[in-house]
Specification:
This protein is an all-alpha fold. The chain has one domain. It is built from 15 helices and 2 strands. It has a two-stranded antiparallel ribbon with strand order 1-2. The chain is globular, with a radius of gyration of 26 Å. It comes from Paracoccus pacificus. Its main location: membrane. It is found in: Membrane. This is Phosphate transporter.
């Protein structure tokens, strides 16, 4: 064999070996890719624990506070992965926002809401579910809050994994209830409050869905099905955006800024009315300018609803950050205060570093794990466009205002997802109604078979069942898990 042949064989062998190494690198990268997000999340959790150790290292309570900070960071990550999808999902599903844009806006406004208008004071045991005086000692109280925090985080994590948007506040409430029962028996629980929370499982989605369906019906009859759609839009879009601005102004004053300024419901409504009128007047020339050169078709209407939809998603995120983050980190703040003072207080201030854990944890959780639930809410339950997504956003603001006026406990998660269901079921009903009218003039042979009509349903029933079941079992599942964790934690030394 000549030298050239030997060299050719060596080169061929080298190419094969390099090819194997290349395939190995590709396979390793493919396997490692799913581990990147959990790895970053783990780093954040560790940093939260180290920050707590550094800030409170001079006190004897440091170990328990570090553990609580780790659990709190884990909970905040899960809020970002699950709860925030309800605010951004409709805008992404309607193609008014890209996934990256939605994540960026939500991260900024959720953090701003938590840090600027987050709760200065919260009940130590999640809205009075368990009376602190029923717990035997500060140590028992700390273990109960630790169990509640970890149990609610684990449950929300599981719900995110199966693709079910759930209420993190309800998970915290269930966790506190379960730990309270394990620590002091059934008499420690405020059952009237629990009945009100259970009622919100029905009130929230039904009210949100009904309002969203009513708004969509109005948009269809006044704009979409008009002969001159653009002329109708020039009249009604400024009014609708004004209503949205007024509703969100009232919503933010009542829910998002309640810790900065105390405003009564009447004053909030007056401020909302002023904001709505101002926005209506401002939007009249804006809508006319936007509608110039557009064709008289439904696709053109999407342009007019795009910017209001993006703004509404940002405002919902701000209010969510201000209102719900404090509920999630409340148990952590209660642990910190009790560990430092050695006594159980009726109220507890949330330290800045605890709010930072909540704010940054939500942002990291949203960026790392949020897209799954955003797609679920935005496009997998029913198909959304900017008009339908606008109905969901407006319904969320109006429903919270109505519930606050009536004193009804509601869940922002249940409202938003219920509104998506309401839009989808209304479209099904309206399509079936129009089909019945059309069948009156269609021969029997040309009618669509019943099986085919069922196949064309506009709301995916599998998601309805999955999400509904997750809502119903959130409180009892978190309670059972929390009770078990409390009994385990009490066995630990120290």
């Amino acid at each position: 064999m000549s030298d050239k042949d030997l060299e050719a064989r060596h080169l061929e062998t080298l190419d094969r070996d390099l090819g194997r190494f290349s395939n190995l690198e590709i396979a390793a990268a493919y396997i490692a890719r799913p581990l990147v997000a959990p790895g970053i999340a783990l780093v954040f959790i560790v940093l939260a624990g180290l920050a707590a150790a550094f800030l409170l290292g001079q006190t004897g309570a440091a170990p328990i506070v570090v553990a609580a900070a780790v659990f709190g960071a884990y909970m905040a990550l899960n809020i970002g992965a699950n709860d925030v999808a309800n605010n951004m999902g409709p805008a992404v599903g309607a193609n008014a926002l890209s996934m990256g844009g939605a994540i960026a806006i939500a991260a900024v406004f959720e953090s701003a809401g938590a840090l600027i208008a987050g709760g200065d004071v919260v009940s130590t045991v999640a809205k009075g579910i368990v009376a602190p005086e029923t717990l035997a000692s500060p140590a028992v109280f700390i273990w109960a809050m630790m169990a509640a925090l970890l149990a609610s985080a684990l449950w929300v994590n599981l719900a995110t994994w199966i693709g079910a948007p759930v209420s993190t506040t309800h998970a915290v409430v269930g966790g506190v209830m379960g730990a309270g029962i394990a620590a002091a028996g059934f008499g420690a629980v405020n059952w009237s409050q629990m009945v009100a929370i259970a009622a919100s499982w029905v009130i929230s989605p039904v009210l949100g869905g009904a309002i969203a369906a009513a708004v969509l019906w109005f948009i269809e009859t006044r704009i979409i099905f008009q002969k001159d759609k653009l002329a109708a839009a020039r009249v009604w879009v400024p009014i609708l955006v004004g209503i949205m601005a007024g509703a969100f102004a009232t919503y933010l004053v009542m829910k998002g800024l309640k810790q900065l300024v105390h405003v009564s419901l009447g004053a909030a409504l007056v401020l909302g009315l002023a904001a709505g009128l101002g926005t209506w007047l401002l939007m009249i020339p804006v809508t006319r300018r936007q509608s110039r050169g557009l064709e008289n078709r439904n696709k053109s209407l999407k342009v007019l609803f795009g910017i209001p939809l993006v703004v509404s998603a940002a405002l919902l995120s701000f209010a969510h950050g201000a209102n719900d983050v404090a509920n999630a980190v409340g148990p952590l703040a209660a642990i910190v205060q009790t560990a430092q003072t050695g006594s159980i207080g009726a109220e507890v201030s949330i330290p800045v570093w605890v709010m930072l854990i909540g704010a940054f944890g939500i942002s990291f959780g949203l960026c790392l794990f949020g897209p799954k639930l955003i797609r679920m809410v935005g496009s997998q339950i029913t198909k959304l466009n900017p008009m339908r997504a606008y109905c969901v956003a407006l319904s969320a603001a109006i429903t919270v205002i109505l519930a606050s006026a009536l004193g009804l406990p509601v869940s922002s998660t249940h409202i938003a997802v219920g509104a998506v269901f309401g839009v989808g079921f209304f479209r099904e009903w309206d399509a079936e109604r129009r089909l019945r009218l059309a069948r009156m003039a269609v021969p029997e042979a040309e009618r669509i078979p019943a099986d085919e009509r069922r196949r064309r349903k506009l709301v995916r029933r599998s998601h309805v069942l999955t999400i509904g079941a997750a809502w119903v079992i959130t409180v009892p599942a978190a309670a059972l898990l929390s009770a078990a964790l409390f009994l385990i934690l009490r066995l630990m030394p120290g």
